[in-house]
Amino acid sequence: MAASNIAQRFSVLLQTQASANFAMVMSTGIVSIALHLLGYREAAQLLFAINSLLFVLLVILYPLRLLRYPRAFLADFTGHTTGPGFLTIVAGTCILGNQFVLLGNNAALAEGLFWVSVLLWIIILGGVFVCVFTCEPKPALEHGINGAWLVATVSTQAIVILGCILSPHMDWNKEAAFFCFIALFLLGFMLYLLVITMIFYRYCYKPLAPKDLSPTYWINAGAVAITTLAGAELITHAHESTLALAFLPFIKGVTVLAFATASFWIPLLFLLGIWRHVVRRYPFTYTAEYWGMVFPLGMYTACSVMLLKALDLPFLMPLPEKFLLIAVLAWIVTFVGMCVATTSALLHDKRA
User: Fold this and answer.
1) How far, rounded to the nearest angstrom, does the alpha carbon of residue 291 sit from its chain's CA centroid?
2) What is the C-alpha to C-alpha distance for residues 51 and 30, in angstroms, rounded to an integer?
């Protein structure tokens, strides 16, 4: 009987699984990479192992949900607030690929993940936005947009980063490859500008209740932080391509612009979090959305390290050293919250 009850509760969890669950792979991966970049190799390897397990688990759960609950899956895919969350699959896969290059010394497996990510990016980005553009009736702006829309930028830049990291290991046509990487880098930033304009308008001119200020809005900062990291990688690898060298001054300017924008958002988001949870006393309850808060903290740490290396700015080093602690603490709290919430949902009947 107990096993049957657990199976039923698992089915409920599977049916209601968040479309953006791969954000836990994104977050775990980038915190691991940040630890690696700052010299904490054993901790980085531990998170690499955890991330590999999370990735395998989600690779099983997503198709299983599609097979068992196709209507729920497709409703999420075509939804304004849930559809863009599927792009976390692309970003998470790329970030795991980065780990396999940097921590696992396995460029061949990382290349496989790269091409899978490119294929998924084409399918999901195109599919989600076609559905959003053509669906009727459309929701009001305040009900139809959230920070998950910015995963369009995150997923695009994640492909650029993994491609740059793989480039020295692969027998690619460097000019063609870097043309694609630069084009994707600029497309990712353009997608950010389009979406952040709508989010800023939503903040300023639409009612904002505490429940509306979900942790996904932390991707306001995460999307430009990963743009900074993509730019830093392009700068670092520019010597591999004459085209990249020609674009180098422009790439540097966009990269610093992205870093400045991320630096603007992070303190503002902390203040909004204080308003939400302290002033308005909105309760902390684990949801998959909180991984969207961990990711920007880890990404801001990693992008700061790579930016100071790419532009030779050693005075920036205290910034990632301080932010690493915040990112690791946020990861621990969110991971424990996920484990507790999942265990509770499997072992206890909420109707009791």
Assistant:
1) 8
2) 10
Amino acid, res. 265 = W
CA gap 62, 14 in Å, rounded = 9
- Is the separation of the CB atoms in 162 and 117 below 8 Å? yes
Q: What is the pTM of this model?
A: 0.95
For residue 66, give both structure tokens.
């599609």
Helices (H) and strands (E) in the chain, counts: 13, 0
The whole-angstrom separation of Cα 309 and Cα 306 is: 5
Is 304 in contact with 35 (CB distance < 8 Å)?
no
306-339 pLDDT, tens digit per residue, is: 999 999 999 999 999 999 999 999 999 999 999 9
Token pair 């091409």 in the structure block, residue: 115
DSSP 8-class letter at 170: S
CA-to-CA separations, 22 to 36, 61, 138, 162, 289, in angstroms, rounded: 21, 11, 26, 17, 11
